[in-house]
Amino acid sequence: MNRKASSFLILLLSVFTSLSVHAFCVQTFNAYGAFYAADIAQRTRETAEQLKADACSAIFLQEVFNRNRMNMYQQFSAELASTHENVPTGLTTSSGLQSLIKGEVLETKFYRFQVQTLVGIRKGFSVTRVRLKDLSSEVVLVNVHLHHSSTDSRMSQLAELVEWRHKNPDLPLILAGDLNSNPDSIEYDFLVTALNLVDLGRQAIGGTYPAGYCTYCKDNPRSWDGFLSSKGPQDQTYDYVFSAPDPKTGIDFRGVSSQVNLKGRTGFTWSDHYGVQVELKEVRQKRRSNQEKLEQLSASLIQLKDLANRHKDARYRRNLKSLLVVEDHIKQLEQKAGFFYNYLMRL
C-alpha cells in the first residue's frame, strides 16, 4: 500500500470512529414527592406508564422519597435496574434520588451535601457506574438535586460535586437532574465551566434555549414559583442533561434531539416540574478548554470566593475553602499550571 492510500485509509478510519452508531434516550424528571404534594400515587402510576412506553436507557428521578413509590416506578420498568437509597416507607431523610438503568449496574454511591436547610429532605447526588446496552464503554451517571431557593447553598453543593469529579475524572460522564438554577445563573455557569460540560438538551435544539422554553413553568398549576418569587410566577429552566468526555479515550456524547415532556394530561399535571428527554449519540472526540472558558471560570471562582467570605454560615465557608481551595484554583488559572488547570486541559 502506497503512502497516499495509507493516509486516505487512516483519514477514513478517523472519520468513521468519530461517528457513532450508538444512539439512546436519557430522561430526567423531578417527580414532586414531598410530603405536602397531592395526588402522589396517581401521578406516579401515570408517569411510570409513560416512562415505560418511552423506554429510555437511563432515567434520572428526583423527589422519590419513599420505598412504595420507588417500587412503583421499578415495577412499571421491570427490565431496568433501579438504584436508590435503602429507606423505610413513609417520610424519611432520603435524598429522593432514584435512577433506572437499562444495562448492568457496576457500582452506586450516594453523597449527601454538607449544607442542608430542609428538615426531612436531604439534597445530594448519586454516582452510578454502568454498562449501558447501547454504549461501547462504561459510563458514569450522576443524578443531582440542588437546594430549592438559596444561591449560596447551591454553590456550596456544586463545590462538592465538582470536587468529586476532579478526583474521579475517568470514564465519560452523563449528569442530569434538577439544579433549581436557570441557564443564565452563576450556578449553571460555574458547573458547566468547571467540569467542561455540554448541555446536551440545549445542544440538540441548536445551542440556544428559545423564548418561552421552560421546565418549571408558570402555566403549571402545581408550580410554587409565584409563592417563592417576589416577581410573581415566571417561566424557569431548572432541569438538564449534561455530558463530559473520558479524557483517555475521547468517548463523549452529542445531543441529537430534545423535548420537554411528562407534563401530564389536561387538568392534571404530573409534577411541579416538567421532564426533559434527550436522545444522545456516542461520539469520539476531544474537547479542550480555550482561553475564554478559563477566563469565565476564573470570574466564577472569584464570585464564589466572595459568596463564601460574606456568608454567615461557617459550614458554608469551610466547605468552599476546603473543597475548592478557591484562591489556589484562581492562581492556577492565572499561571496556567497545577492539578486543576491540567484537569481542564485534558478535556
Explain how this protein is built.
With 347 residues, this protein is of the alpha+beta class. The protein contains eleven helices and 14 strands. The protein folds into two domains: 21-284, Endonuclease/exonuclease/phosphatase (Deoxyribonuclease I, Chain A), CATH 3.60.10; 291-346. A six-stranded mixed sheet has the order 3-4-2-1-14-11. A six-stranded mixed sheet has the order 5-6-7-8-10-9. The chain is globular. The chain starts with a helix and ends with a helix.
Question: What's the short version?
Answer:
The protein has helices at 3-18, 40-54, 67-76, 151-167, 186-194, 200-204, 225-228, 291-310, 314-323, 326-335, 339-346, and strands at residues 23-30, 58-62, 81-84, 98-101, 103-112, 124-132, 139-145, 173-178, 198-199, 239-244, 251-261, 264-265, 268-269, 275-284. The chain has 347 residues and is α+β, with helices and mostly antiparallel strands. A hairpin with a 2-residue loop joins strand 12 and strand 13.
C-alpha-based Rg, rounded: 20 Å
Strand numbers in spatial order across the main sheet = 3-4-2-1-14-11
Low-confidence stretches: 7-20, 88-92
Beta-strand percentage range? 15-25%
Termini separation (Å)? 35 Å
CATH topology of the largest domain: Deoxyribonuclease I, Chain A
Instruction: Quickly give the CATH architecture of the largest domain.
Output: 4-Layer Sandwich
Mean pLDDT: 81
How many domains, as an integer?
2
Count of runs of 4 or more consecutive helical residues: 11
What's the name of the CATH homologous superfamily of the largest domain? Endonuclease/exonuclease/phosphatase
By secondary-structure content and strand pairing, the structural class works out as alpha+beta
Which of globular, elongated, flat, extended, rod-shaped describes the shape? globular
Please identify the top-level CATH class of the largest domain: Alpha Beta
In this structure, how is the largest beta sheet organized?
Answer: 6 strands, mixed
Name the helix and strand elements from N-terminus to C-terminus, one letter apiece: HEHEHEEEEEHEHEHHEEEEEHHHH
